[in-house]
Design brief:
157 residues, alpha+beta, Ubiquitin Conjugating Enzyme, globular
């Protein structure tokens, strides 16, 4: 019984992986690790018209043993100035916590994280200092986010 469930989970991961490579979300690449089909190397382009535009952000995504019953673990490896992402790269996003549903897929998660870059939510922060700056001096916060993007997320040719 357990093997059937495990193989079903693996099959779902393989199908989602194939779909991600065949039809990647715009501005996002998700490459499975060659040694672990549950671990993904993500590169996400900063959304246009955001302070993250022009940046390429590295993330990691790991699918737990009980995926899709539990959400994937995702974190930023690239340093980023954002109220919903802390200095360890952890992400405060409802679908990665209490709003997760097995109907959601890796693609949905990645697109939601990219959307979070366009629409920071300082009212539900993970980085309190950044959220305070976003609320008290949004122009300065956006400027700092842009500076960090240029410093940490722009890959020189």
């Amino acid at each position: 019984m357990v093997n059937t469930m495990a193989s079903g989970t693996t099959r779902r991961i393989l199908v989602e992986t194939k779909n991600l490579s065949k039809d990647p979300p715009p501005g996002i690449s998700a490459i499975p690790d060659e040694n672990n089909c549950r671990y993904f190397h993500i590169v996400m382009a900063g959304p246009k018209s955001s302070p993250y535009e022009g940046g390429l952000f590295k993330l990691e995504m790991f699918l737990p043993e009980n995926y899709p019953l539990s959400p994937p673990n995702v974190r930023f490896l690239t340093k980023i100035y954002h109220p919903n992402i802390d200095k360890l790269g952890r992400i405060c996003l409802d679908i990665l916590k209490d709003q997760w549903s097995p109907a959601l897929q890796m693609r949905t998660v990645l697109l939601s994280i990219q959307a979070l870059l366009s629409s920071p939510n300082p009212d539900d922060p993970l980085a309190n200092d950044v959220a305070t700056m976003w609320k008290t001096d949004e122009a300065q916060a956006i400027m700092t986010a842009g500076e960090w993007t240029r410093r940490y997320a722009v890959i020189d040719e």
